[in-house]
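Hi team,

Filling in the usual template for the complex we talked about on Friday. All components are listed, including any nucleic acid strands or ligand strings, so the model treats them as one assembly.

SUBMITTER: L.P.
PURPOSE: interface mapping
COMPONENTS: three
RESIDUES: 1276
SEQUENCES:
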Amino acid sequence: MDNILPSYLILGAILFCIGLYGALSKRSAIVVLISIELMLNACNLNFIAFSKYGPVPSLTGQIFSLFNITVAAAEVAVGVAILIALFKNKGTSNVEEMDSMRY
Amino acid sequence: MLDNLPILSMIIFSPLLGILILMFIPKEQGRWIKIVGISTAFIPLILAAFLYVDFDHQSEDTLQYTENVEWMSVPLNQDSEILNGLSSYTIQFNYIVGADALSLVLILLTALVSAMAALASIHIKKRWKTYYILFLFLMVGMLGVFSARDLFLFFVFFEVTLVPMFFLVGIWGFKEREGAATKFLIYNGIGSALMIVAFLILVTTAGFTLIQPDPQQLHATYTSGLDQIMANLSDPAALVNAGAELQIGTVIENPFFLSDTMRWFIFILLLIAFGIKLPIFPFHTWMLKVHVEAPPAVVMIHSGILLKMGAYGLIRYGVMLFPEQAKEWAIILAILGAINIIYGAVLAFRQTDFRLVLAYSSISHMGIVLFGIAAFNVIGMEGAIFQMVSHGLISALMFLIVGSLYERTGTMELSALGGLAKSVPFISGILLVAGLASLGLPGLSGFVSEFLAFIGLFDTMPIITVVGTLGIILAAVYVLRAVLKITFGPIAAPYENMKDARLVEVIPMVTLLAFIVLLGVYPSVLSDPLKHTVDQLIQNIAGRIGG
Amino acid sequence: MESTYSQLAWIIPISPLIAFLILLSVGRQLKQYGGYLAVLASLVSFTISVLIFIERTGNEMQNYTWNDWEWLSVDTVTLTMGFEINNLNTLMLLIVSFVSLLVNLYSIGYMKDDDRINVYFSYIALFTFSMLGLVITENIVQLYIFWELVGVCSFLLVGFWYFKPEAKAAAKKAFIVTRIGDVGLFIAILILFWYMPDHSLSFSAISNAFEQKAIEPGIVTLIAILIFIGAMGKSGQFPLHTWLPDAMEGPTPISALIHAATMVAAGVYLVARTFPIFEASATAMTVVAIVGAFTALFAATIGVAQNDIKRVLAYSTVSQLGYMMLALGVGALSAGMFHLFTHAFFKALLFLAAGSVIHAVHKQNMHEMGGLGVKMKITAWTFAIGALALSGIFPFAGFWSKDAILTEALHQNVWYFIVGLTAAFFTAFYMSRLFFLVFAGKSRTDHKGHEPHESPAVMTIPLIVLAVLAIGAGFVFTPFNPWFGEWLTGTAEEHTNWTVIILSNLVGLLGIGLGYLMYIRGTIARDVISSRAPGLSRLVANKYYMDELYQMIIITPLKGLGYVLRLFDYYVIDGAVRLSASSALYVGRLGARMQNGQLQAYGLASLIGIVLLMIIFVGRRFWNVG
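RESULT (copied from the run log):
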C-alpha cells in the first residue's frame, strides 16, 4: 500500500498517450476534441495522485484539477461551437480539409 | 569666420533644409520643386568650397573641423567582481565628424557631382517631388560617409545611401529597373552585413577603453570612435594587443584580445564589404545593371561617388586599421587591381550598349585605385586618391552626356548610333574630350592618377605594373571604339535634326570638364592639400608595421 | 653669354595655344578670319624661333633652362614644368614653327570651301602648341605629356572629315598604334623614375647619370629599347608603321605638317634628346640601326607598288624616317638630325604640291592623272625639285643629308650601307614613277569640263619657299663645310667619301632612269614584275600583309578573348550571383511548403521536437556527456 503512486502515474501516462495519438491522427474533429479531453483528464489524474501520495501532499493539486475541469468544459463548448460553424460552412468535420491557413 | 560654426554638420545636413521646404510644395508645382531641389543641392557645394579655402593645408594636424557630440550612452550591468570596481561601464556612441584632406577632397567631389547631377535631373519625367526628396536624402548619406570619424556613424550614413538609391533606381529607371534596384540592394546589403559584423567585433574589442581621470575613478567604455580605435590598435599596451590571457589577480581570458586570425578575419570581411562597393572583381556584376537601368543623373552619383565610398572605406577602415594584413596582402590587392584593369577593359571592348562600356571602364579604372593602394607608398596613395577624384568627375561627365544623348536619341545601343558630331557637335565634342580623359590623355585628370599609381606600384611590383599598363592601350581601344562609333561616321537619318545642348546642359558639362582640365593641367590644386594627410597616413602605416 | 631671346622662348608654344583658345571659343564668329589668326600665331612663334636661332648661331651660348613651375609635388619628389633652349631644339623650333606657318598659309587656300575651317585651324593651332611644347620641354614627363597631345591632335586631324568611315578608322588606328609605342615610353619613364638619382627626370640629369654610367647596363638597355619603342610608334618604324599610310585620310596640309615634317620626326627627336641613354648601350644602338635600316628598305619597296599619290609619299616618309633612325643607330646624331631638317622641307613640299594636285583634280589615284605638268607649272616644277631632293641627287638638300648618313653607315657596317643604298634606289624609282604618272604624258581621265588649273597664290607661295629650301638647305652641312654638325653637337665627324657620293648619285639616277624607261618611253613594260612574279608583286602591293597580320595575331584574339570573357562574366560570375539568389529563394519555397495548414502535422512536429529534447536532456544524465 505504501507505493501506490506509480500505478496512478502509469495510468495517467497511458491515458495521455492514447489522447495524444488520437489528437494527432484522428480525422474527425469530434474525436480529436474527445482525445484532447482524454489528455486533460490524464493531467487531472496526475494532479490528484500527487496531491494525495506525492512527497508534499496538499490540496492545491485537487483545486487545480477542479480548475482544469472547468477550463476543459469551456474549451469543449467553444471548440464544438467552432466545429458547428465550420460544418455549416464547409459541410465536413474532417480536420484534414481544414487547411485554409496553409501557405 | 568658420571657427565656431559646425561647418561639416552644416554641409552634411544642409540638404535636409531642401527636403523640409519640398514637403510643403504641392507636387503639381514641378517648376518650383526643381528650383528648390537644384538650389539646395548647391548649398553643400558652396559650403565645401569655403571649407577647401579655409582648410589649413600646412597644418601638421591633419584632422580638422572635428565635432564630437555624445549621442548614445548605454550603461551596462556591473554585477561582477571585476566590474563593480569601475566608476562607470558603458557603451558609448558619439557623433564624431571631422575632415582631413582625403575627406575634404571627397566631400568637395560629392558636392560638385551631386550639384551637377541635380541639374542633370531635369531629364526626369515624373514625380519630381519624391525624386528630389530622395536625391537630397542621398546627398546627406554620401556627405556623411566621407565626414564620419566613427564606425557606427559611418555605417549609418553608409546605409542611408542605400535606401534612396534603391528607390531612385527602382522608380525612375528604365525597363528592368526593379530587378536592378533589388540586385543593388541585396548585394550591397550583404556588403553592409559583413561590414557591421567587422565593426561590432572591433567595437567590443579594440573599442574597449579605460579612462582614468583621477586615481579614484576608472571609466570603462566601449567606443566606436575611429580615432580611439585606431589609437588602441596601434598602442602596444592596449588590451586589444595584450595577449590572450590577462593577469588580474588570477589569470583570466582576455576578452578584448584580437588574435592574428581574428584580425585577418576582420580585414577580409572589410575587404569584401568595400570590395563589393568598389567593385573588385568578381563582385562587380551588380553595378552593371545599375549602370544600364538607373536614370543617367542617378548613375552620375552612383558611378561618380558611391563607388568611391568603397575605395574610401578600404583606405580608411581596411588599410588604416589593419596595415599589417593589408601590407601582407599588397600583392593580392595588386593582382586584383590588374585583373580589374584588364578584365574591365577587355569586356568594355565587347559591349554593345554604351552604358555598359562605361560600366566596365569603371571597373577597369577602379583597378588603378587598387594599384595605388597596393603600392603602400605616398606616390601610390596619392595616385589612388587622384584616381578616385578623377574617375568621379569623368564618369559623372560621361553619364551627363549619356543623359543628354538618350533624351535625344532614345537609345544607347552603339549599333544604332553614329555620326552625331554632325547634328550635335557640342555634345559630341564634350564626349570626345571625356573619352580622351578616360583613356588617360595627359593634360586631363586621368593621366595624373594613372601616372602616380603606376609609378607608386612600380617600385615594389614592376611586373604587375607592366601588366597593368596594357590597360592603357586597351583603354584607348575601347574608348575610341565606343566614342567614335557614336560621334564619327555617316549620320543616321533619324538623328539629323537633333538640337544641340541647351544652356542647362552646357553648364554642368563645362563645369565638370573645367575641373577635369584643371586637375590635368595643374594637379597641385589637389596634391598640395593632400600632401600632409597622405604623408601621415603612410607614416602611420609604416609605424604600425615597423612597431 | 646671357641669352636675351631664349628667355622669351615660352611665347613660342603659348602663342598658338592662345590662338587655339580663341578659335575654340569664338571660332564660329570669326568666319574666314580664323585662318589669319592661326597664321599670325605661328608667325609670332616663327619670329621668336628665328631670333633665338640667330642669337645662338652667332655666339657660343649656354643652354638656357627655366623650370620653376611646380607641376606636381608628391612625397619628396617635385615634378616641375619648364623649358630648355639648346641647339638641338632650337633647330626643331625653327623647323616646326616654319612648316606650321607655311601650312597654315597654304590651308587658307586649300580648305576655304570647308565650313568647319575654323575647327580645322584650331586643331592645327593646338597641334603646333603641343609640338613646340614637346620640342622645348626640359624633362621627360613633360615630353610625354606633349607627346600624347601631338598624338591626339594627329588623331583629331586625321579624323577631321569624321563622316568618312575611312577617316574614322584611320584616326582610330593612328591613335591606338602610336599608343602601343607610347606605353613603351611610359614604362621607360617608370623605370627612370626609380633608377635616376633623386628621381630627377630632367634631360640634363639623365645625360649626366648615363654619361657617368650610374645605372646598371641591363637596365640601361631596357630603358633605351623602351624609349625606342615609343619612338617607333610615333615615327612609324617597322612594325608600328601601319598607321602612317592610313593617316593620309586627313586633309593634305595635315599630312605635310604632321605626318611628314614634324610629329613623325618626334620619334627621331626623342632618340636624339635622350641620346646619352642610347650611347650607354651598344645593344640598343644596334637595335635602333637595324630597325631603321630595315624600315628604310621595307617601306621603300612598298612605295613602289602604291597607286594613291599620298600613300606613296607616306611610305616614302616611313622610309626616310628609317634613314634617320639608322643614322642615330650608327651614332651619327648630327647626320640624323640633318636629314630630319632637310626632309622636313622637301617632304612638306612634296605633300603640299600633291595637295595642290588633289585640289585641282579631286582625285588621289595616280593612274587617273597625267599631263598635269602643262596645266600646273609651279606645282610641277616645285614637285620635281622635291622629288629630286628626296631621291638624293646632287646638289639638292636630300643629297647632302643622305650622303652624310650613308657615309656614317659605311663607316660602321657595310651592310647598313648596302641596305641604305638599295632603299635609295627604290626611293628614286618610285618618285620618278610618281612624277611621270602625274605630270607627264596625257591626261588619262575626262575632267568633265572642270579643267584642272594652277592653285591660288596663297598655296603656291609656300611651295616656292619650300622649293628654295629643298635646293639650298643642304649646304649648311657638307663634307666641305661641316658648320651645322659642329653647331649641333659640338664635334664634327663628317668624313668625305667620294665612293659614297658617286655611288649614291649613281643609284639615284639609275632609279630615275628606270622610271623614265618604264613610264615615259615604255621601253620596259610596266608589268614586268607583276607578270613574271605575281606573288611578289601582290605581296608588295598588299604592304606585305602587315594589316592582315595584325588582324590575325592581335585583333582577332582580343575579340575572341572579349567574347569568352563576356560569356564568363555572364554565366560564371553573374551566374554564381544568380545561383546564390535563386538557391535562397528555393530554400524559402521549401520552408514555405511545410506550412501545409494541417494542425495535426504541426502538432506531430512539436511532439517530435519535445521527444528529441527529452532524449537529449535525459540522455545527458545517463551517458554523462558534457
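MY TAKE: The mean pLDDT of chain B is 88. Chain B is about 70% helix and 5% strand.

Thanks, L.
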